[in-house]
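Summary for the steering committee. The consortium agreed at its last meeting that each partner would contribute one worked example illustrating the joint modelling workflow. Our contribution is presented below. We chose a case with several input lines so that the handling of multiple components could be demonstrated. No manual editing was applied between input and output; the record is shown as generated.
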Amino acid sequence: MAKVLVVTSGKGGVGKTTSTAALGAALAQGGQSVVVVDFDVGLRNLDLVMGAERRVVFDLINVVQGVAKLPQALIRDKRLENLWLLPASQTRDKDALTDEGVGRVIGELRSRFDWILCDSPAGIERGATLAMRYADEAVIVTNPEVSSVRDSDRIIGMLDSKTVRAERGERVEKHVLITRYDPARAARGEMLNIDDILEILATPLLGIIPESQDVLKASNVGTPVTLNDADSAPARAYIDASRRLMGEQVAMVVPAERRGFMNRLLGRRAA
Amino acid sequence: MSMRLLRLFGGRNASAPVARERLQILLAHERGLLGQSDLLVTLREEILAVISKHVALDPDKVIVKLDRGKTVSTLEVDIEVPNNFDKSKAITERRMAG
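What follows is the complete predicted structure of the assembly.
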């Protein structure tokens, strides 16, 4: 059965788009048919991170408004044949998306794909609400930083009240994905640690993506990090997270890219 | 043991416990406030609707605030009425319309 998953955060710049691309690619690598949908109207970027920026002809708004048919707007990934992109528009008219139109498009996508990953815009405005509106599951992307955790708390509140599922009295399954985690700094008490974040947000953990240069490298060349270097620490963390989304039990490890001096000295696994 | 050693070396930099505490206090406060926000929005809209029947109002000039204190809570309603509002005229108009 098709699952609609929103990747959201509240705060901007925490890695929603990177995570959408990486999780989408990882699910596709695992054999699922996946479409990643960019809801960030006006500031579209998912096409760029996916390396499809020059192949965009029609976009989500065109489909919502009936200017283009869904198959005309869907872009197949160059590397994976079961990974597709529905790009956002550069238009400045944010009201071009209607609740009803989005519902129709999501409904149509449900009949074609196993997974529909919605990349939410930052903030708590209409765009973010529409991106989560039809979600069955949510990945809340959080940095180990006070502002990010606070905004995630707000978004969790919205997921529990503003979604179709919530209005029907059902739940949206929520997961926290911690990005830019530096185990050495957390061990030194300079960064909120995983337990603190999970306790504060009271939401289960989907994965821990270590701070890594590989993430920037992958987005520079327009390839999801799991496809660019599947053996890199962040890629492995995203692949594990995607397997958890598919219901597998995968042990949680913090793949430390650079182990701090103190950790090495003490022979301590960063975790 | 190793944690203690780490604390010893990195003690001056341990800002994360402060972050954790600040967040816990802040979020406890915000979660309480957000639960009320629907009530305030409803109140504001209904007050606006009632007064607008009689006076032309700028919707942005109606402020409804709820403060929860330990012993007393206050509901503060601040409505700015336009300067050129003529009460007798409005009432006459209403009588004529009715």
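The helical segments of chain B are 2-10, 16-52, 87-97. Chain B touches chain A at residues 2, 5-7, 9-11, 13-17, 19-20, 22-24, 26-27, 30-31, 34 (CB under 8 Å).
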